[in-house]
Write a structure and sequence with these properties.
- The complex is a heterodimer of chains A (about 220) and B (about 325).
- In chain A, about 40% of the residues lie in helices and about 10% in strands.
- With about 220 residues, chain A is an alpha+beta fold.
- Among the domains of chain A are: about 45 residues, no CATH class; about 110 residues, Orthogonal Bundle (DNA polymerase, domain 1).
- In chain A, helix 1 runs parallel beside helix 3 and helix 6 crosses helix 9.
- Chain A starts with 14 loop residues before the first helix and ends in a 6-residue tail after the last helix.
- In chain B, the strands form three sheets. Chain B has a five-stranded antiparallel sheet, covered by helices on one side. In chain B, strands 9-10-11-12 form a four-stranded antiparallel sheet.
- The longest helix of chain B is centred in the last third of the chain and has 19 residues.
- The radius of gyration of chain B is 20 Å and the shape is globular.
- Classes of the chains: A alpha+beta (about 220), B alpha+beta (about 325).
- At the A-B interface, helix 2, helix 3, strand 1 and strand 5 of A face strand 1, helix 1, helix 2, strand 3 and helix 6 of B.
Chain lengths: ~220, ~325
């Protein structure tokens, strides 16, 4: 949990709100599949007066209490119960113990939290876990698993001295993996342009560029 | 961030219902790249997020003979890919350049056209919780008193001194684009330039959209034959430009300008439309004319104590945008 999370005020559900919520869930129940009914009932209780209108609009409102969230991570389906506010990064790190992706800026700027979503690099700190459902999520842990040890891109990082303190490295590895897959003929300039979303305060950019070119072309691109 | 309710409707009607004021303080979620950061800093505290990403019609691009319609939830990546595939990028280079100027692939993968247009200002006083107008207890401007190297050089006589952060808006305005807006009262269409305003008192926002209105698409009409965007950037990677200029113009058979628009980004609380562009009409476009128009636009600038350098950059951006448009790349 992030340090800036505010505790949920459990007393905020008033008796009136609860009763209204119950009637709302009764309205919603007719339109929902049986499996969703139990969930809608809890949701309605928390949702308060607003749930009534939503039920009329025939779209389900979830939360703010934890809801079922199914994520496909490194090829495996993981069933979680998360509040809608939980980011993909927090779900990975705090709920699944996948700590490869790092929380640094937490503001979609530094790239340390980079994972792949349907093959594209994204900032997992700024994707809600609920929004990542139905998409293929790949983390740096998955790279190693799939390769039974270090993946080619990871070996190229080692061979090209592409890390110093190492904290940005998992994010850079995933961004490089995305470049390698999406642009298998990238030259140095194109590869660097595709790494514009990651920061390294040690300044290992030269090594990272060599690593991704090494992975793409089997050369170090003029090292 | 605070907890909130979450819904993912599949139709625009459902989304409008979920966002309407009777439902309380609700916000539309698209890519989330700005909204979630604002929520983590408690700068916005919606009680409900309505995801727009399940609404198919908002995520489509259509290229017609005369125009280009882009749904609000088209990602920046999707926009660029479609530009290459459908070659609209060659017809509206000003927009193509602006979209390609967003240098983080992670932001392009999640960020959407609607979100890019409605992202909140990057002003560090605003982002640190001092409000959009960043005033002290006596109404003095923290921006004027403090570091304002990135702040406004136009339209900054009032309390608002931030710059509008959108990269796409100046290009869309130069291309005379319109915005489609949905609300419980129906649909309306405005010029993209009319989406923005300069706030004059606390509580006012930088957009003219009402709290229950949703930007659903932007439409670019038949393009002017020449256009380009040039950004002056502090670095090649992820960052906002210091100054950007989008230009679009048309020449007659004799090489005289028949129509011209110049819109600057990152220089004012709104995308800044340079009225001086009209003075180009009837004239030929050469280096001297371009330098003269750039100087005329810059002359109207009112920089703060520490950002006069942006006036020079604005001239550079205008000159290079015209040069790029003439070269056609």
């Amino acid at each position: 949990m992030s340090q800036t999370d505010r505790p949920q005020d459990a007393s905020s559900v008033s008796r009136r709100g609860f009763l209204r919520g119950m009637s709302a869930s009764a309205l919603a129940a007719g339109a929902l599949a049986p499996a969703a009914q139990a969930l809608a009932a809890t949701v309605g209780a928390n949702a308060g007066p607003g749930a009534t209108t939503s039920a009329k609009a025939a779209a389900t409102v979830f939360g703010p209490a934890p809801i079922a969230v199914n994520l496909t991570i490194n090829g495996k389906t993981r069933e979680l119960r998360l509040e809608p506010r939980v980011t993909l990064l927090d779900a990975l790190r705090n709920h699944l113990d996948l700590t490869g992706a790092k929380k640094v800026c937490d503001r979609a700027t530094c790239g340390a939290c980079t994972v792949l979503l349907d093959g594209k690099a994204v900032y997992s700190c700024t994707v809600l876990a609920v929004e990542a459902q139905g998409k293929a999520i790949e983390t740096v842990e998955g790279l190693a698993e799939a390769n039974n040890g270090a993946a080619p891109i990871q070996k190229c990082f080692v061979a090209n001295d592409a890390q110093q303190c190492g904290f940005c490295t998992p994010g850079f590895v995933m961004a490089c993996e995305s470049v390698r897959r999406r642009n298998p003929h990238a030259n140095r300039e194109q590869a660097l342009a595709e790494l514009g979303g990651n920061l390294c305060r040690c300044g290992t950019y030269h090594g990272v560029a060599n690593a991704v070119l090494d992975a793409i072309h089997g050369t170090t691109g003029g090292k | 961030m605070n907890s909130f309710e979450y819904a993912r409707p599949t139709t625009l009607e459902q989304a409008i219902g979920l966002l309407s004021p009777t439902d309380g303080d609700a916000a539309a979620l698209a890519g989330g790249t700005d909204l979630l950061s604002l929520m983590k800093d408690f700068l916005v505290e919606p009680k409900r997020l309505v995801s727009l990403m399940g609404i198919e019609q908002l995520g489509t691009i259509s290229v017609g003979k005369d125009g280009l319609k882009i749904g609000a939830t088209v990602t920046l990546d999707g926009l660029l890919q479609s530009g290459a595939l459908n070659q609209w990028g060659a017809k509206w280079p000003a927009l193509w350049h602006a979209a390609a100027g967003i240098k983080s692939p992670q932001l392009r993968a999640m960020g959407t056209v609607g979100g890019e247009l409605l992202q909140r200002p990057r002003c560090w006083y605003f982002r640190r919780g001092h409000g959009l107008l960043a005033q002290d207890a006596k109404g003095g401007s923290l921006v004027e008193q403090g570091d304002h190297r990135y702040h406004a050089i136009f339209d900054n006589a009032g309390p608002a001194k931030f710059v509008h952060p959108s990269s796409l808006a100046p290009a869309l305005i130069a291309c005379d684009a319109t915005a489609e807006i949905a609300s419980p009262r129906g649909m309306r269409t405005v010029k993209v330039s009319e989406l923005y305003r300069t706030p004059t008192k606390a509580g006012e926002r930088e957009t003219t959209l009402a709290s229950d209105e949703l930007l659903t698409a932007v439409t670019l009409p038949r393009p002017l034959p020449k256009s380009a965007t040039y950004e002056v950037r502090p670095r090649q990677g992820l960052d906002w430009p210091l100054v950007a200029a989008s230009v679009a113009f048309e020449l007659d058979g004799g090489g005289k300008v028949t129509n011209a628009r110049i819109v600057l980004g990152h220089v004012a609380p709104t995308p800044w439309i340079a009225a001086d562009a009209k003075s180009l009409i009837g004239k030929g476009i050469d280096d001297a004319a371009i330098a003269a128009i750039a100087a005329a636009v810059a002359k109207a600038a009112t920089p703060l104590k520490g950002n006069a350098y942006k006036v020079d950059l604005a001239q550079v951006a205008i000159r290079r945008a015209f040069a790029a448009a003439l070269k056609g790349n």
